[in-house]
Amino acid sequence: MKILRKLLFWLIVVPVLLVLLLQLYFFLQIGWWVNHNPSSTSFMRHQLSILQEKNPNAQLKHKWIPYNRISNNLKRAIIASEDSNFSEHEGVDWDALQKAYEKNIKKGKVVAGGSTITQQLAKNLFLSGERSYLRKGQEVIITYMLEYWMDKERIFEIYLNVVEWGVGIFGAEAAAQHYYGVSAAQLGAPQAARLAVMLPNPRFYDGHRGTAYLARRTDLILRRMNSAALP
């Protein structure tokens, strides 16, 4: 009986405690980021390690800039393209998740995520690009932590500064410089719409900037931008 209790302790109690400690770490770290800018994210570090496997001297292009120095064109374009209800929902768009789940069931594998901007930020800050329901569950927990600690503007500010925009390109300032040779504050509406459309697959579009889909989707986002509500 004593051996059984020890076995249960190591198989059940210890893993549960470790998971709870991990959630506490996430919670406290997000609280710190309310007033401090993250210098990097889990996703950024992972991409840097991949680049350095080929080139040990490789570095990411990334420069933090405050929210008010990022063009409203880019903010509106991203909301129109990625999460039209960003200012209204509480972090998770359950209707979008349901549609993604149904699509995944139909395809027989995870092909869609239905993630909001807050969920994308949760993934970038702490998680990997792996697609699984376990990772999705952790993403949702972190999403609600972000919404608990931060207002929408702060969430969006961090997102705009850490999201991937190409091979080794992270954040709005680096993206604006890389693709257009201007600062993030100077992005015009067509430039902003194009950058927003690249977000679901930025490394691909970094090397394929003239696709017909990119052009069509950019025109669509341009028409939707004016109705996007900023936090």
Overview of this structure, please?
- The protein has 231 residues and is mainly α.
- Helix content is 63%, strand content 3%.
- Strands 1-3-2 form a three-stranded mixed beta sheet.
- The protein starts with a helix and ends in a 7-residue tail after the last helix.
The percent range for helix content is 55-70%
Number of strands: 3
**Low-confidence regions:** none
Radius of gyration, in Å, reads: 19 Å
- Strand arrangement, largest sheet? 1-3-2
Structural class: mainly alpha
The outline comes out as globular
- Taking the alpha carbons of the first and last residues, their distance comes to 58 Å
What string, H for helix and E for strand, traces the elements in order? HHEHHHHHEEHHHH
